[in-house]
Predict the structure.
Amino acid sequence: MKIAILGGDGFVGWPTALHLSDAGHDVHIIDNLSRRWIDTELGVQSLTPMDSIQERTRIWHAETGRRIHFHLIDLAGDYQLLKNWLDAHRPDAIVHFAQQRAAPYSMKSDRHKNYTVNNNVSASHNLLNAMVELELDAHLVHLGTMGVYGYSTVGAAIPEGYLPVGIETMSGETVQQEILYPANPGSIYHMTKCLDQLLFQFYAKNDGVRITDLHQGIVWGTHTPQTARHPQLINRFDYDGDYGTVLNRFLIQAAIGYPLTVHGTGGQTRAFIHIRDCVRCVEIALNNPPARGDRVEIFNQMTETHRVRDLAELVSRLTGAKIAMLPNPRKEAAENELVVNNDKFLALGLNPTRLEDGLLEEVVEVAKKFAYRVDRSRVPATAAWTREIAPRIDRDPEGTALKSVS
Ligand code: USQ
């Protein structure tokens, strides 16, 4: 297949591009390099040293003989350029990662909220709009989030996108329907993914666009077999308070002797998936497209759920790291249960990589190797969800004034 990977320079996009190229597909990365600009804005860098996208693709070609093409296009900002590219290349499938993906970044200020909404919603809408206008019948696979559901369940597993409901009509009968699971975003970032769902629903219904939406959990790990093939193919790896995600942050913190930054009681339960499984899931989704006229296909792209404080204890047992219970910068439930249905990927052959598979140590090793690149002052999460929460946030870079350390 000719596959366009929008956002192919990012944390999940880059390993996906390599995985699909390795599998023999003709891969084209489209990216505006915004993630690199945000590093510059925040004054942080990936823990792992990352080459330019051109250098990365050159090394991939030298290693494998396969070409990955790179095109510098801003989906949200340059509609005409995007449309011209799609018209000229007419890909069979489009994988859409090209969105601002960090909840804390989206909540930093009014400017960051505006940026996230404008960028993410315009990127998706420009793409859908151009596909219809060009009569491009490509399968669109979008990276969504588990966060569209919210994280509290009513004692039932979260289904894959749709909820069966019985509606009592005026004549007293009960009509059965399946509706999109009620959206319950916890940040501006997550909200944009909820808005995406409505855009997809409309374009699938109105124009027959074939769409798969992947509701992904929190990614952990860094290497895939392809990124490990050469030091210059290494994936980016975020540790800072805005872009680092919880388990990877704990593993990096353990490697640099920084007390593990548990927010609140650590009672938040979330869904997780290893980066190796993310790229496999995208491939499985690409191989199982919906038919024209079908409703949006939705998969829950996660393999296990864990409570944040259990993860901290696990990492602490493994590495001897201390645990710090910090004021929570977010507005979220202090404790929640989470049960998620992921039967569809399992039925299609996904063999999950679990925490117990020994890959936690691999991440700690990577973190130790590049520990010299860490700016400890960028570890605390400082983006507060509301003005009331802001004064509670501890900005002490070395963690010496942490609320409690065990
Ligand atoms: N947390 C800590 N300590 C930290 C960092 C986070 O206790 O140092 C807590 C947070 O308060 C939250 C949980 O861990 O309760 C998860 O936070 P996170 O930063 O790992 O994940 P989140 O903000 O939800 O976002 C990440 C990705 C996003 C993706 C989402 C999937 O950045 O792109 O969509 O995970 S999900 O969480 O399932 O919605």
